[in-house]
Amino acid sequence: MTFRISLTCLGALLCACIAPAHAAGHAHQHGVAKLDVAVEGTQLTLQLESPLDNLLGFERAPRNAAERQAVDAVVAQLKAADQLFKVDPAAGCKLDKVELNSAVLKLGTPDPAEAKDGHADIDGDVSFTCADAGKASYIDV
């Protein structure tokens, strides 16, 4: 399944959602992920926050070989962010770096609060360097 996100529409949706979410504090909800997009100069940056349950069906350390294999597959897919997030070719973007953070999966530098609240997330920071990031009118997800 492919979703095309217009950056203009995404900005409007994020503005409409940020105020209520901010007022309520950080909520951990299964079935809900957050994707923020920032465009500045030649940089296009995506920040993804998702409960592990959304991607793995569990939110704890893997307990067996099948679960470790599922974790490896999800991590590989997220690291291949240029295949997961197709930026409008008019911007001329190339994947620069992907940073993944998860306390339970022992990835990166996770938020210390994650271990305390009993829920496990994965956070991803994806950076693209573009010829002209301002020309990116959509991202296919």
Task: Compute the average pLDDT.
Answer: 83
Strand content bin: 25-35%
Extract low-pLDDT stretches: 8-25
Total helix count?
5
Helix content: 25-40%
The overall strand count is 7
Give, in order, the helices and strands: EHEEHHHEEHEE
Distance between the termini: 8 Å
| Spatial order of strands in the largest sheet | 2-3-6-5
Largest sheet: 4 strands, antiparallel
Oligomer state of the chains in this structure: single chain
Radius of gyration over all CA atoms, rounded:
16 Å
Structural class assignment: alpha+beta
* Shape assignment: elongated
What does this protein structure show overall?
By secondary structure, the chain is of the alpha+beta class. 34% of the residues lie in helices and 30% in strands. It is built from 5 helices and 7 strands. The chain has helices at residues 7-24, 52-56, 65-79, 81-84, 112-117; strands spanning 4-6, 34-40, 43-51, 86-87, 93-101, 121-130, 138-140. The strands form 2 sheets. It has a 4-stranded antiparallel sheet with strand order 2-3-6-5. A 3-stranded antiparallel sheet has the order 1-7-4. Strand 2 (34-40) and strand 3 form a beta hairpin. The longest helix is centred in the N-terminal third of the chain and has 18 residues, at 7-24. The protein is elongated and about 45 Å long. The termini are close together. The model is unreliable at 8-25 (pLDDT under 50).
